[in-house]
Amino acid sequence: MNEALTWILDLVQNVDPVLRTALSGVGMLFETSILVGLIVPGDTIVLVASTAVANPVEYFALVLVVIVGALAGESIGFSLGRFFGPKIRAGRLGRRIGTANWDRAEAYLAKRGGIAVFISRFLPVLHSLIPLTVGMSPMRYRTFIAWTAPACVIWAFAYVSVGSLAAGSYRELSRELHGAGYIFVGIIAVFIVLAFIVKKVLQKREAKHMEAATRSPEPPPLEES
């Protein structure tokens, strides 16, 4: 197992650090701007890139680029929603997402406001839909960015830290411990399980608010632009 894992990690690390970091930022930008996150989750992109982090400079550079990429993508998603939201929703991709998902996202945002923006960063599907949905709502951009920025910072530090910690621990132990690969897999697995549990808890909790919002005939108005 160690040989195969070392080969994979070396393959990622052999990519130029600047290129690797830039690709992570671009991946995050696309994730929330044009709904790529519905197909290729940013979690995977960042975890893979973070396994190649070799020093503090690369660590903080990756965190910073991931944050900037995420915020840029969400800003683009907001703008697309503001200017082309109804067309995107009525288009082929919008129809594939489903009217029910759009309606739930809108009702959820109307009921929860900024909290919905913050929490959506940690939830599948919603984190790709919310920027567009906010763009179609009366919420101001500065309000949107004030809620999503801290969520992006927390998300970036969490994923880059886990990926780099797991890979770093493996490299230190691989020459002395035959089962070092299992430590790497264990760290990643524990994090994925914890992230899954947190997402499920948040989904269950927020689903109640979504259901309440869809039943509410007159949700409270958002802040007007």
Distance between the termini: 56 Å
Give the total of beta strands.
0
Low-confidence stretches are: none
The string of secondary-structure elements, in order, is HHHHHHHHHH
Beta-strand residue fraction: under 5%
Tally of contiguous helical segments: 10
When the domains are counted, the total is 1
Percentage of residues assigned to helices: over 70%
SS-derived structural category: mainly alpha
General description of the model:
- This protein is mainly α.
- The chain has one domain (2-215).
- Helices cover 80% and strands 0% of the residues.
- It has ten helices and no strands.
- It has helices at 2-13, 17-33, 42-50, 56-90, 92-97, 99-112, 114-120, 126-135, 141-173, 180-215.
- Helix 2 (17-33) packs antiparallel against helix 3 (42-50), helix 3 (42-50) packs across helix 9 and helix 4 (56-90) crosses helix 8 (126-135).
- The radius of gyration is 19 Å and the shape is elongated.
Short recap of the structure:
This protein is 80% helix and 0% strand. The protein is mainly alpha-helical. Helix 7 packs antiparallel against helix 8.
